[in-house]
Amino acid sequence: MEPFKVHILGCGSALPTLRHYASSQVVEVRDKVLMLDCAEGTQMQLRKSRVRFTKLGHVFITHLHGDHCFGLIGMISTFGLLGRTAKLHVHGPEALGPELQRQIGFFTHDLGFEVVFHPVDTTVRAVVYEDRSIQVESIPLEHRVPCCGYLISEKPTQPHIRPEMMDCYGIPRSQMGNIKAGADWVTADGDVIPNDRLVRPADSPRSYAYLSDTRYLPQLHEQLQGVSTLYHESTYGEDHLLQANKYCHSTARQAAMVAKAAGVGKLLLGHYSSRYDDEQVLLREAKEVFENTYLTNEMDVIDV
User: Fold this and answer.
1) What is the mean pLDDT of residues 46-71?
2) Region for residue 47 given its phi and psi (left: phi exceeds 0; alpha: psi -120 to 50; beta: otherwise)
3) What is the mean pLDDT of residues 260-286?
């Protein structure tokens, strides 16, 4: 099974602290590197993660609050200084496009590569990027500004060839494609070898949902059924439920309620309020609802 990994670059919220950077993650899947949000300090964290800058092809911005996008122009500028030539694709709310172009024109000269902006309608679920092996969908959220999460999903793969069976029946390597596609094999004597004897089942497709700032949405789980790993903002504990409601954020317990209702594999907490010196209280409250819950911290690498 190919790696599907999430690098946590920052899991704090808007107010900077000495313990956490603001929101940013890197996802490695099927030989691609994607970034989710790009807060101040992201490029420094990216260096620490040892993910190669040159492999980063797409950046997905959830919304236009500084703790999710202030690092974007700095990272783009650095890529130019490093001699990048490959296109960088940026996906985000429509209003980001002209502002990003203004900043690029003002702060960079002879950038050396093209930044391609793709507007995202944050009000609908839609495929915003896909290739032969993965797709990325927007998930509408509710915050104080237009906001969406992103769902990264592997596409189904073909079954695995059983080489010992290929050798046993003398099946030429040239037939591997047909066997993977479901064909049986007919021997020289006319015996039919069923396809299920020649292959092992394909790996189950994995998926990762990144839900940044949002108020608790009781029906959100309908968009996330069976997701392998869910990251759901958990800014507050139940002791600050009023603030969560006021500022359109979620508590750790509410994040766990979404995870449980969606039947996800595991839940990752993040976007912690700076008021918490120890996020264990958030973890305890979430685990009361959904046991397979984990805190995120900078430089964590999580297998989806």
Assistant:
1) 95
2) alpha
3) 97
Is residue 214 exposed (0-12), middle (13-18) or buried (19+ Cβ within 10 Å)? buried
Here the tokens at position 22 are: 């603001």
CA torsion, ordered 122, 126, 127, 129, to nearest 10 deg:
-20
Angstrom CA distances, 143 to 82, 100, 146, stand at 36, 21, 7
Residue 199's nearest CA partner among 178, 227, 222, 220 is 178
Cα separations in angstroms, 70 against 48, 73, 148: 19, 7, 17
CA distance 190 to 184: 12
Q: Which amino acid is at 159?
A: P
Catalytic residues, by residue number, are 67
Separation of CA 138 from chain center: 11
C-alpha–C-alpha distance, residues 99 and 95, integer Å: 7
Chain-wide mean pLDDT for the chain? 94
